[in-house]
Each structure stands twice: as C-alpha cells, then as structure tokens.
Amino acid sequence: MKIKPITLKLILMNFLEFAVWGAYLTSLGRYLFNIGMGNQIKWFFMMQGIVSIFMPTLMGILADKKMEAQKVLSLCHGLAGLFMAGAGLYCMSAGAQVQFGPLFLLYSLSVAFFMPTIALVNSVAYNALGKEGMDPVKDFPPIRVFGTVGFICSMLVTNFLHIDGVAMQDSYTQLISSGVLSLILCGYALTMPACPVDKSKKDETLADAFGLKAFSLFKDPQFAIFFIFSMLLGASLQITNGYANTFLGSFAGNPAFTDSFAVKNSNALIAISQASETLCILLIPFFMKRFGIKKVMLISMFAWVLRFAFFGMGNPAMPGVLFFVLSCIVYGMAFDFFNISGSLYVDQRTNKDIRSSAQGLFMMMTNGFGATIGTFAAGAVVEAYHVADDVNPQVQNWPTVWYIFAAYALVVAILFWLLFKDPQKTAVTKA
User: Fold this and answer.
1) Measured distance CA(167)–CA(189) in Å, rounded
2) Measured between alpha carbons, how far is 28 from 169 in angstroms, rounded to an integer?
3) Which of 193, 236, 294, 350 could make a disulfide contact with 358, Cβ separation 3.0–4.6 Å?
4) 319 preceded by cis ω (within 30°)?
5) Do 229 and 421 form a contact (C-beta atoms < 8 A)?
6) How far apart are CA 268 and CA 418, in angstroms?
7) How far apart are CA 161 and CA 163, in angstroms?
8) Predicted confidence (pLDDT) per residue in 58-109, tens digit
C-alpha cells in the first residue's frame, strides 16, 4: 500500500512534537530532586497545568480567527524552544548554585508556549488529512503512533546518553535538548498545508469575535459532563510524570536496590509506558467504532487505577519489578484511550469554524484545570508522607501514596459510568 507524502510529513511532525516533551517530562523531577528542589517538583508540573488553562484556548482562537494554525504552531515552538534552551544554559552557568526563581521563570515561559502546540498539532493534522480526503478517525492514530515513538527516543537518549560523565536524566542537558528540538519544529511547521482562517465579520457576535463560541459546547449536558470528567481524568496525567522517576530513584538509598536496572535506568523502564502507547493508539479506531467513547474512556479510567496500584505493589528486585513493568504496560490504555480518543471525539462533534478552539478547550480542561488540581493534590499527598523530602525520604511510605492515587481514579471511573451517556457511535451531531 502506497503511503501518501502528507502522511510522511505528519509522521515527522508528530515525532518531533513529542520528542520535545519526552526529552525532559519524565526525568525533570529526578533532576530537580538531585539539585535539592524535591519539594518544588509540584510547582514545575503545576505550571504546565496553569498555562494550559488559558494558553491553548488563546492560541486556538488565534488559529481559528487570525493566523493559520501551522504558523501559530511555528511561533509557539520558536518561543518555547528559546526559553527551554535558556533554562538549560542558565543551569549550566549556575553550576551547583541553581536558584529556583530564574529556572522556574524560564521553564514557565517555555511551557506556556509549548502546551498549546499539542492541540495545534492535532488541528494541523486533521486539516491536512481532510484536504487529502482521508478519515481522521482511521488515518490519524497510525500517524500519532510516531509521536509516541519520538517521545520514547527522547526518553532513551536522556536515559543512556552521558555528557561529561553525567546521565542526561540527572542533568540540565535534558532542557537544552528539548529546546533544540523545539526550534527544529519551529521551522518544520511552516511546511505544513495551510489551515483555514475564518476572518468573516458578517453577523459576528462578541463571542464569535473573541473565539469564545467553543464554550457554547457546555450548553450540551453530555458535552459538559465529558469536559468535567476530562478535567478529573486529566488530574491523573501529571502524577506519574512528576513522581514516577523520583519514586524509582528513591530506592537508591537502599543498598539492596542501588545498582538495580530500575534505579539506574528508570527513564528506560518508564519508556515501556510509551511503547505500550504505540500499540494502544493503533487499537483506537477499532475500539472507538466498536465500543464508543464512553466504554473507551472507562477502560482508560480503570487502567489508571491499575497504573497507580501496580506502582504501590512493586520494588526494583524480582519479582517486584514485574509490577513496575505491568504499570507501564497498562499506561498505554490509560493515556491513549482518554487523550487521543477524547481529541477525536471533540473533532467529530464540532464544526470546523470552532475546531481549533474546541481542541484548545479540551486541552484546557485536561492539561489545564485537571493537571493543575491533580499536581497540587498529588504534591500535598507526597509531602504529607515525606516521600520526596531530599533530607529524609521515607521510601516505605510510597506504596500508601500510590494507593491513594489509585482510589481517586476508581471513584472517578464509577462516577463517569453512572453519569455519562454514550452518544450514537455512527451518527455524529456537530455542535
């Protein structure tokens, strides 16, 4: 079967998009812990959530009303790359005297412009596929797989590459790497097919002028429930991003585990999660058409329960390490069956004039409000049990922390099952 040129272009775009994120997302907490900022980890991951409350929506409005989406994508990556590379260079110049303020400021500015690109990449891809007469539900997931491949490649480089004798997962070099990749995508985004911009002012309301029409989706009770549970499920997304690597690294204090693979190569172990994603993305078209969005999201929610519970049950030695592996395997369903399927659901059920704004709204609820609330709550739990205290880490308290997170995911799943009604699987009503 011949692959269309646009498919190859979108594959590379998705590869670079998530390689940018994979360079630091799962290893940043470990680096921060190493430089004495263990109790500040939550602020870095909360900032991803805070900026996602408004930046994806604003950039979506810009893409819908003022500037072609591929150009907005380029602009965002250019600024994100400059600020992230700047954060890494600051850490290099500061040596052992890295201060929270300058690092956090540069990092915050970077993620403020990076987070909107996740939704923008989807909008650019859906537009390109539509122009070629292709079906996003069928043709996008195999393309999106290469985003996960990019994430994995970045994670493995960060895990195994040593610079000046220090692994990148323990160093500021992960930030520089991310910045460089973002700048590359800044240029590449401009080669994407032009996206439509609705500049018409005829019969335009104030909500239309400011791109707020997407918020009218909340008038549909089931859409409102979908977005609310997207927020609640989004709270789970940053928990393992922020603390999984820190958790695995904490076992280094136990002589029985110091030299284990799970401790010394924690980023590589966590990469199994992304490898699982590649398979689960390919399963999405079948699951969406066979079961519908409700059952697919329920599978995701129960997978989050297992994701957290398996972490609580494991340790770096055999057979305990197998629970870590199982946790990573179920992550594919936990992430993809919610994040990718939810994005496709929004694309299917909205008109093209608000599609970018609607994707931004979905991002705002998940990686914005959800991630912010989830990271803050997770940080409170972690601090309550002193598991990320760089002075006196309480490794034995980690299982309780993971079981608390698992209980939360279980409650969310039960409530969603009771409240959300699965829409028609075939007939799609545009909002």
Assistant:
1) 31
2) 7
3) 350
4) yes
5) no
6) 38
7) 7
8) 888 788 778 999 999 999 999 999 999 999 999 999 988 999 999 999 999 9
Sequence-separated (6 or more) residues with CB below 8 Å from residue 338 = 230, 233, 297, 300, 301
| Three-state secondary structure call for residue 163 | strand
Q: Is 197 helix (H, G, I), strand (E, B) or coil?
A: coil
- For residue 399, is the peptide bond before it cis, meaning its omega torsion is within 30 degrees of 0? no
Q: Distance between CA atoms of 63 and 337, rounded to whole angstroms? A: 26
Q: What single-letter amino acid sits at 381?
A: V
Closest to 223 in 3D by CA, of 367, 365, 56, 352? 365
Are the CB atoms for 53 and 366 separated by under 8 Å?
no
Give the chain's length. Answer: 431
pTM metric for this prediction: 0.78
**Could you give the C-alpha distances from 173 to 15, 30, 251, 283, in angstroms and in order?**
20, 13, 24, 35
Q: Each residue of 329-372: pLDDT tens digit? A: 999 899 888 887 888 788 777 777 677 677 778 877 887 888 88
| Token pair for 235 | 């709270």
Q: What is the DSSP string of 88-151?
A: HHHHHHHTT---HHHHHHHHHHHHHHHHHHHHHHHHHHHHHHHHTT--HHHHHHHHHHHHHHHH
**411-427: per-residue pLDDT in tens?**
999 999 998 887 654 33
CATH entry, 5-193+211-419, from 2.30.30.40, 3.40.50.970, 3.40.50.1820, 1.20.1250.20 = 1.20.1250.20
Q: Which of 124, 109, 91, 121 is nearest to 48 (CA)?
A: 109
DSSP-assigned letter for residue 37: -
Mean pLDDT in the chain?
Answer: 86
State yes or no: pLDDT of 3 exceeds 70. yes
CB atoms closer than 10 angstroms to residue 215: 16
What is the distance of C-alpha 94 from the center of its chain?
29
